[in-house]
Predict the structure.
Amino acid sequence: MNTPPSQSGAAHRDGSSVGLGALVPLTRPGWAEAGRHLLAGLDLAVREVNDAGGIDGRPLDLVVRDTAADPERAAGAVDELAGLGVAAVAGEYHSVVARAAAARADALGVPFLCSSAVLDALTDEPTEWVARLAPAQSHGWRIYADFLLGAGRRRVAVATQPSIYWASGIRVLRDHLASRGGSVLELDTTALTPEALCDALVDHGATALLLLVGHPEPAVPIVRAVRGDRRLAEILIGAPAGQPEFAEWASALGEDGAGIPFLRYLPERLGPLGERVGKELRERLGEAPSFVAFEGWDTVAVLAEVLRSHGTDRAAIAASWPRVMVEGTRGPIRFSRTPGISVWQWAWTPIQVVDRNPAEPECFRILHVG
């Protein structure tokens, strides 16, 4: 398992540093662009912690492992990081991968602060060892369903691939829409070509198509096919999982990638801290930071406060989740027990439904706020 060098400037392995494991998708089939943003946020915050004196004078050492969207690789990384003596593990973007990491962290007794993954059932049973910053899928996707209803889109089709994450999202959408006069039709992209999918949309009279599939394949070919089909000129294409957030989406699809609403976990306006961090992240990334980059920064801010207040003992860190009170880039962060969620949860980060403005695809429009 290849490890990128620590970018925190604190690569001490002699016991003088405080190790913090970081799980990040940096190579395919992982969403490497999301991983790059997540790592930029993690690394920036670690640098700031160390510039301010570290953890009681000890530098924070970010020990990065590339998960490549592989659950087994992530579980193995948790094993390795635990053996290296890290105080806690953080990060991960892909929900199925984070679930594997959370299960292993729970089994080993290693605190895990999940930055970005949203799957409700992050662990099978309630655990004291895992906390999460990102909102649960059931919460965010219900807000997305409300947006669809408000836009008059009740006959919803979903282009799907096999995954517990996509299956969970479909259940959320179906339950929420069905109780309000809507319906959900599943279209299996492993059995349908993009052209056949377009035919099914016409036959069903769908008013919205949600992309519950991977990027760039098969999401990009599906968008191109739908955009090129005159019969579907009025259909809304949506991507609740957030594919259009990243520049890679705009590069692949150009104008066809605009006007596709997705979920973004940012407030309508950032406060002074968010503005400052956002400026630093933009300089690091060479582009506007996604909400994932802010999730990375907030993750380290939480863990640094916990380490300063409660020490580096793993059990003490896990016991501190309900007492966390940290000012994050997107608002005050506190964890609680939330019904139906098995981990300590920030309830909730601000949530928006946004899209790329068709008139200016590099700019985002806020369409709905949850």
About this structure: The chain has a mean pLDDT of 95. Residues 223 and 256 are 7 Å apart (CA to CA).
